[in-house]
Each structure stands twice: as structure tokens, then as C-alpha cells.
Amino acid sequence: EQLSQRRDALRAEVSDLEPRTDQSLAPPSRDEGEPAPIEELPAPSSASDDDTADLPSTELDVVDEPTVEEEQ
């Protein structure tokens, strides 16, 4: 009996967690308001990714400039 109760409790916890993960991934769950901040997080993260992408590109440009000058 205890095992069955534990299983039911675990299943209840899992069922509680599953919809949350689905909501975080699903855009229509904005009505609850929880996924809204989650969607805000990827926006700055993508911006940071762009910044990091810009850094190596600028580094490459700087490296390319002296090489061009040397060739000239």
C-alpha cells in the first residue's frame, strides 16, 4: 500500500512538473504569466550571443587589417 501511495505521489509530482515544462516551451501559456519571464530570458541571451559573435568578428577584422597593411 505504501509503495502504491508513493507511486501516486511521484506521478502527481511528475504530472505537476510536466505541464510546467510544456508551458515554458509553449507560447500560448502566456496567460499564466510564468512563461513570459522565461521568454524574456532568451532575448538577452541571444543578444549576448550576438555580442560574443561580434567580438571574434572584430578581432578577425583587426587581424586582417595589419596583414593587409603588411602586404601593401
What is the CA-CA span between the terminal residues? 85 Å
**Strand portion:** under 5%
Determine Rg (CA atoms, Å). 25 Å
Main sheet summary = none
Shape: elongated
Structural class: mainly alpha
Low-confidence stretches: none
Reading the helices and strands in chain order gives: HHH
Q: Give the strand tally.
A: 0
What's the multimeric state?
single chain
Number of helices: 3
Rounded average pLDDT: 59
How many domains would you count in the coordinates? 2
Amount of helix: over 70%
List the helices and strands and how they pair.
Layout: H1 2-25, H2 35-40, H3 42-71
Explain what the structure shows.
This protein is mostly helical. The protein has helices spanning 2-25, 35-40, 42-71. The longest helix has 30 residues, at 42-71.
